[in-house]
Amino acid sequence: MVVLRSYVSGSWRAPEDEGAPLRDAVTGEEVARISSAGIDMGGALEYGRRTGGPVLRELTFHQRASLLKALASHLREHREELYALSARTGATLADSKFDVDGGIGVLFAYASKGKRELPNDTVLVEGDVEPLGRGGTFVGQHLCTPSHGVAVQINAFNFPVWGPLEKLAPAFLAGVPSLIKPASQTAYLTARLVELIVESGILPEGTVQMICGDPGDLLDHLTEQDIVGFTGSASTARLLRTHPAIVGNAVRFNAEADSLNCSILGPDAAPGTPEFDLYVKQLVQEMTVKAGQKCTAIRRALVPAALIGDVAEAVRERLAKVTVGNPADPEVRMGALAGLDQREEVRRSLKALLDAGGLVFGDPERVEVRGADPERGAFMSPILLRADDASRAEPHEVEAFGPVSTLLPYEGADQAVELAVRGRGSLAGSVVTADAEFARHVVLGTAPWHGRLLVLNSENAEESTGHGSPLPALVHGGPGRAGGGEEMGGIRGVVHHMRRTAVQAGPAMLTAISGRWVPGTDRRVTGEHPFRKHLEDLRVGDTAVGGPRTVTLEDVEHFAEFTGDVFYAHMDEEAARANPFFGGRVAHGYLVVSFAAGLFVDPAPGPVLANYGLENLRFLTPVKPGDELTVTLTAKQITPREGADYGEVRWDTDVTNQEGASVAKYDVLTLVAKRPKQD
């Protein structure tokens, strides 16, 4: 029988004992054995810090993003193999795609965000420069740099592919190596995933490690620079959070824990409306996908009291059509739980829930199974409960981590909010309604208790990813019982793995440290216009000065007639004089911007390929006929694009009048060609 190996310190290590058996959730057959006996936990962490960390920190965000994209493409070629192995965890093909394709999709998403939203640099400049003195010679800036530790991920059994990849992606992009600790029940699938990653040779050595089996003294070796990401039960999260090394070293700890998520049906969503049908469909889907073993699954279905009978009947009809059995059978809609122990745990929780309400559908002890033995496999019927007394504690405190949900009646929006928050913190909630006023009341009332809220109706149903689908661009986590943490969230997830430092310095020194031009730093004005320089020849601080140009009343009137912008401040002297801000006719702001472009643009063909936008535009001082405009354009940030023959340049633009006062400030964004390659 196969004994799962760990991948640590640059090699595959077999355990020193025979390990414990891991069984097929469908057949009960032994799939593999697992143990971490003999693994040097401290050595693995130190290897990640000393080998993986330095090489990652040498790479820019764009280079790391390119590696993530290459890894995602490689894993996509092996999806069929991962699907087949996933079926042994009890997952249907649809469940497996949710896990496997979802994880690969996270890699692609972070690769894209890394290229589009992060600089081609090893440091991330965060926020604006803060003036710290009156004279402009003392300023501050927040910089984010990679943690010099290891991102230790302790994962749950329900998503053995998506779980590791959604933690790996932001950590890797941040420049931090990962150590993966999969849950034992489904570790054989994660182990194959890591084998594919290692065999590809795409990621630098030391940036990904894996420990199969008990973590032993792993946490004892954590340092101040390490980061722990946990997914699992709320009770385990509490234990880990109080580990002496985590507390003593102030280790950054993120928990995403199971929670009693709810879905609320609006009073407007009566039978026959699209929203009623959407609610019923979504509830059944959340009960049966992954056999209800999702941390985001709907555990509490809040329904207007007047509609609870209709909802119960509609859900019962749909559940009756769900075929439970061997995932290899294409007719099967719901597979097995991860194991027999998990099924018994669900049954124990069900006993408490049944005390608070009656069965609407299902049998906790028996289920008709297609293509498998219901005793050897961890099969269970979908269970829908109804608790007419919504004030009972059990539905708001007890979670059966399987295909189980409870219908709860409410009267009015205020009670819906009150019942929702009794879960004491949830990963996800949903409101199904076409009533915008009801949606606003419920969302604002429940938001402090939820990490994510979906408002679902006929407007967005076609494109909605559903109640239980975390997305890379949005945070995945929740307060209170849900763990108090946040995963993914786009670039937020990257910054979580970095250290934010406030750097105080003079403008020139801060420019040198951050790689971004800071106002107050000397500008370089040479005989060659910066627009004549290729990307490699440009330097932060390169400057062009244009002007002056006098703005005439004829200019203002022509621009007004040409564009149709005849706002009174430009065309009516008496009305403009009555405005205390203007005190007379003024030039259009966009006329000022247009004149500025005419002053700084070099007209001949050259390395500048395109102007693709303006950012942070502010009009600061009114421009009156007779004013003279001068523009100063300074290269603020230079970002080469990996694998492309051009890059992006951000130009600080300051338009001033004859008195030196700034009338407009903004950033101009251009695409600039690199030097042509020599044949």
TrEMBL record:
Presence of the UniProt keyword Translocase in the record: no
A molecular function GO annotation: hydrolase activity
UniProt domain Aldehyde dehydrogenase: residue ranges: 12-442
Domain of life: Bacteria
Pfam families with a match to the protein in the record: Aldedh, MaoC_dehydratas
Keyword match tRNA processing: no
InterPro entries reported for this sequence: Ald_DH/histidinol_DH, Ald_DH_C, Ald_DH_N, Aldehyde_DH_dom, HotDog_dom_sf, MaoC-like_dom, PaaN-DH
Protein name from the UniProt record: Oxepin-CoA hydrolase/3-oxo-5,6-dehydrosuberyl-CoA semialdehyde dehydrogenase
Taxonomic lineage of the native organism: Bacteria, Bacillati, Actinomycetota, Actinomycetes, Streptosporangiales
